[in-house]
Each structure stands twice: as C-alpha cells, then as structure tokens.
Amino acid sequence: MAESAVETMIEARALSKQFGATRALNDVSFKVARGEIVGFLGPNGAGKTTTMRILTGFLRPTSGSAWIGGVDVGAEPLATRSRVGYLPESNPLYSDMMVIDYLNYVADVRNIAPAVRQQRLREIGERCGLMKVLGKDIGQLSKGYRQRVGLAQAMVHDPDILILDEPTSGLDPNQIVEIRELIKDIGREKTVVLSTHILPEVEATCSRIIIIAEGKVVADDTAAALSERKSGAVIRLTVKGKNGSALDPEKIKGVFAGVVGVRAVDVVEGEVAPAVGFKLQSAGAADPREGLFHAVVQNDLVLLDLHREHLSLEDVFRRLTRGDGGSHA
User: Fold this and answer.
1) Which of 53, 153, 239, 318 has its CA 20 to 30 A from that of 212?
2) What is the CATH number of domain 8-228?
3) CATH code 3.40.50.970 for 233-310
C-alpha cells in the first residue's frame, strides 16, 4: 500500500489541562506534517509550554490525547520520546561538565551505540557550532553557547521531531541567523515546532503559524494569510487632478468608499498639493485594487501610486490574542 503523501508527525486531539481551578488548555487540536516548521505563538500564560510538555510526554493531559508519528504519547511515552528532541525554555544543563562529556552523557541516555557515537557527536558539534568549545566546562560558556549545547542535546539522537522553546534566546544577531538557517535546514527532512517571542524570526523561519490564547487555538495559517484573514490589507493610493486641478478630498473619499471590497477610507496628510493620499482598509481577503483603478479612471483622476500593504505579524498577534497592551495571566 502506498504511503500517504503527507505524513502527520504531531497531532493534538482536543487537549485540555487543568491545574486546580486553572484551565491551562481548553480543547486544543492541531496537526503538523513531516517537513513543516511551525511557529507556536501566544502571550505569557496562554498554554504554549503546557502544550509542548504534553507533546513530549512530560505532562499528561486532563483530557484529550497527543500523538507522535501515529503513536499515542500517553500509551507509549518511551517510544514517542525516542522520536522527539526537546529544548525547553529553561535549557537545564550540568554546568560542571565539559561540553563533550555532557553530550556523551546524553548519548548514553539516548542509547546511542558506541560504534557510531563519536561520528554522531562530531556531526552535531559541527552543525551547532560547538567544535571550539567541546573541551570547556558548560559553566564557562556564554549564554549563546549554552543555548547551542541545549540544541545539540535535543538533536544528538537524530530525532524525527524537534520541539524548541525559545531556541535563540540569548544569542547575538549573527548567531540568531546561523541557528535560524540550521532550523530551516533541519526542517527539510524533519518536523520542527518552534516557540518564540521574536516575531520576525517566525516570519523568516516558519512555514505556518499556530497562535494560542487563553488555552485555545485562535489561528492556524501562514503569516501572509493571517494578516489578511483577520483585518484585511491596507491599500495606499495617491491621486491628483488632471492638469493640476484642485481636488475635494472628502468627495474622492466617498468615491473610494463605494468600491466593492473597501471597508474604510482615510485621507492621509503629507502629500504635496495637488496630490492627495488615501489609506484604505480592505474587507477580509478581498482585493479592491482593480475596482479602485476603474474609479480613478472614471472620475478623471491621475493615479500616482497604488500599492498594497499587510498587517505586521505583531499587529495580527496583538489583535488575535486581544493583547493591545493588556496582560494575560
């Protein structure tokens, strides 16, 4: 029998988690396919870390189930853990151990055969940029290098799945780019779930974004699709009158407001007369640019500029999680 074209590597099925009177997760469901790099976002206290701990077998859900490679984590925790590499946000390390000794210790725990261990550790050391510090104590390393050690321990057993909680925390800009490229490279053959607060990093790295707020999934899509699905796109338009004739901005505003797919129109200050600028909000995924072009022509206007912008991921995140300066417990 032929295998399915898309293999589901991670699946959360109606996950709920109760801590006393606090409901940390409420019916969370999603799937992640092999080769996807998925950004997992949410404000503090939204349930990100709880979800990751359930997926990796460190917590049991109050209800629902987590599946890794088609295997129930609750029923086969050791089998599923063998397929997952996990870098928790706290990145617990043994500071008194040398880097190479620590990685050998992890290899022991992961039952990596001695015959292939040294080659595997060399590969991981090179990929994570640790070759120069293998003989140093972990406690002597910078925070950035300690983060690299944490990433190496998550990868040492060559897992099918990597679950990374703030993997670039403490890294300098150059290191962030290096780790970002490493994660993208790994994602070509493995499945990666990446939790981070660095939103541009998500846009640069992830093929898909899941946003969780107050224990519920509130969005699951690409960054571009999310920016339009929630509030539509912003369209910038600049016109002037033929032969430099003066325009009535409010009258033109009314014309543009009547175009199908336009939800709101504002006059933008700062254009040099006789040009007049407008900022328009489209309705959902609608693209009213063709209608706007025809409106310009029909009203004998000269089109100087017409381009489409998207909400930033930060704006989308704030709107979806109802942040806007507020806090989440």
Assistant:
1) 153
2) 3.40.50.300
3) no
What is the DSSP code string of 179-241? HHHHHHHHTTTSEEEEE-S-HHHHHHH-SEEEEEETTEEEEEE-HHHHHHHHH--EEEEEEEE
Q: CA–CA separation, 178 vs 112, rounded Å?
A: 27
Residues 223 and 244: beta-carbon distance below 8 Å:
no
Q: Establish whether the linkage from the previous residue to 43 is cis, with ω within 30° of 0.
A: no
Cα–Cα distance for residue pair 280/263, rounded to 1 Å: 7
Token pair, residue 328, equals 């989440």
- Residues 64 and 25: their CA atoms lie apart, in Å, by 10
> Distance (Å, rounded) from C-alpha 197 to C-alpha 180?
14
203-227 pLDDT per residue, tens? 888 989 999 999 999 999 887 777 6
Residues of the chain with CATH 3.40.50.300: 8-228
Pull the structure tokens for residue 145.
Answer: 């290098």
Other CB atoms within 10 Å distance of the CB of residue 37: 22
**Tokens representing 246?**
């003066």
d(CA 307, CA 223): 19
- Strands 234-241 and 191-195, bridge-based pairing: unpaired
Does the global pTM surpass 0.85? no
